[in-house]
Amino acid sequence: MNVSTGGRRIRSRGATAALVCAIILLPGPGYAAPGDPAPPTDKSIEDIRDELDGLYREAEVATEAYNAANEKAGKQEKRLTTLRKDLTRAEERVKDLRDLAGAAARTQYRGGDLAATGIQLLLGDHPEQALDEASQARQAMRGLVNVSETQKTAREALSEQTEAASTELRKLKSSRADKAAAKQKIEKKIASAERIEAGLEEEQTRRLAALEKQRTREAEARWTESGGSSGGSSGKSKGKGRAPGGGTQVSGAAGKAVGFAMAQIGKPYVWGAVGPSSYDCSGLTSAAWAAAGHPIPRTSQAQWGGLTRVSLSSARPGDLIIYYNDATHVGMYIGGGQIVHAPRPGRDITTAPAASMPVLGVVRPGA
User: Fold this and answer.
1) At residue 222, does pLDDT exceed 50?
2) pLDDT, the chain, mean
3) How many Å is the maximal CA-CA distance in the chain?
4) What is the CA radius of gyration of the chain?
5) 107, 134 Cβ separation under 8 angstroms
6) Is 329 part of the annotated catalytic residue set?
7) Is the dihedral of CA 122, 128, 133, 139 positive or negative?
8) Concatenated DSSP letters for 221-262?
């Protein structure tokens, strides 16, 4: 190969390398990671609002699943602790019976054989001693039989306790796995929503706030149209008989529950929280009724399934309004077409129109 040919090849390879580098360094189209929300710049305010609502709804659904798994795990942990104590007692019982069986066997051995005792009764010089030994032997044999039967029962109980503890441990592991999966989903949805909100321009944020106010007004009108109870007065009334925040004054346990819930206004929503510094939606309602002396189920789904249902038109302060077809949000009715509730991550406990979300039904604690 001559020098000129080699030089052309070197220059050709150099040009190719430079072209590859240029291609690599050229800015290409951006691609969002799978599952990331799309940038909001090319969407309408209504679309942005719907996307945010959807993400927070999914987070709330996962929060209720987390709460249910957490509550289940708590009960299973207590049950497992009890079973382990029972298991320890059963093991000690079997050990004690084993020792007793040994003592009974030794007593029988010392008492001698019953046939030999009969011979002593006939031929011996001390028949009264033989009778005493025979009596001891019979008692020892009866005791040995009783101990054996008790041992069998105790071993069966021990086996059952062992199996029950193993089963409960498996359930606990499953609940913990459900809890961890729900936690991961909650954090993912909230992070996606926060990225959208962080990327909004000032004008978009202003328009989003205006849209929320408009939807609030529409929700107030829907409550009246749907036949919802006013709780005795208009939600806009400020006169006698009104409680702070626009609710209707009420006495008894319901009054205590409403008073507790209203006193939490301004505290942040935190998923999985039951107070005292923060709450999620069902954490607030369950804490309020517990403070009123009437503990209720922890989750909104359990509240819907376990409390007395009443009609929408007869709702009164202290009742719980359950939202969405899957019963994954709850607020406490305070009268005047208003609820107090913990809305969602990033928001504080506040009052809102009772019809601001799709109503599933109304339940009454303590009924």
Assistant:
1) yes
2) 77
3) 137
4) 37
5) no
6) yes
7) positive
8) HHHHHTT---TTS-TT--STTBPTTSPBP--HHHHHHHHHHH
Residues in the chain: 367
- 21, 126, 294, 329: which is the annotated catalytic residue? 329
Which DSSP state fits 41?
G
How many angstroms separate the Cα of 59 from the Cα of each of 99, 303, 366?
Answer: 59, 19, 30
Specify whether the CB–CB gap between 108 and 139 falls below 8 A.
no
Partners of residue 310 on adjacent β-strands? 362
Residue 364 CB neighbours (<10 A): 17
Q: What is the pLDDT of residue 211?
A: 84
Q: Which residue has the tokens 């829907």?
A: 222
Task: Kindly tell me if the per-residue pLDDT of 358 is higher than 60.
Answer: yes
| 3 state SS of 26 | coil
Q: What confidence score (pLDDT) does residue 363 get? A: 97
Helices (H), 112-201: 114-123, 127-198
305, 339, 316, 304: which is closest to 253 by C-alpha?
A: 316
pLDDT in tens, 198-221: 888 888 888 888 888 888 778 777
Query: Per-residue confidence at 164, pLDDT binned at 50, 70, 90?
Result: confident
CA distance 319 to 362: 7
- The more confident residue out of 38 and 155 is 155
- Partners of residue 321 on adjacent β-strands: 331, 362
Token pair, residue 184, equals: 């991961």
Backbone φ and ψ of 331, nearest 5°: -135, 160
Report pTM.
0.66
- Judge contact between 218 and 355, C-beta under 8 A: no
Phi, psi of 322 (to 5 degrees): -100, 135
281 classed as catalytic: yes
Is 294 annotated as catalytic? no
pLDDT of 26: 34
| HSE, side-chain direction, 13 A CA sphere, residue 310 | 18
In angstroms, rounded to a whole number, what is the distance separating the alpha carbons of residues 13 and 23?
15
Cα-based distances in Å from 134 to 109, 117, 127, 154? 12, 6, 10, 30
> Which of the following is catalytic: 21, 126, 281, 294?
281
